[in-house]
Amino acid sequence: MNFDIKCLVRERILKMIPYQSARRLGGHGNIWLNANELPISTELKLKHHNLNRYPDFQPCDVIVKYADYVNCQTDQILVLRGADEGIELLIRAFCEPGLDAIISCPPTYDMYGICAEIFGVKNKQCNTKTNWNLNLLQILSNLNQVKLIYICNPNNPTGNIIDISDIKYLLKMTLNKALVVIDEAYIEFSNQYTAVSLLSIFPNIVILRTLSKAFGLAGLRCGFIIAHPEVIKVLSKILAPYPLSSPVIEIASIALQKNNIQLMKNRVLELIENKNWLSHELKKIKIIEHVFKSFANYILVKFFYPELVFNFLIKKGIVLRNQNTKLYLSGCIRISIGTRFECLELLKSLKELSYMEIDKYDKS
Question: What CATH number has the domain bearing residue 290?
Answer without folding.
Answer: 3.90.1150.10
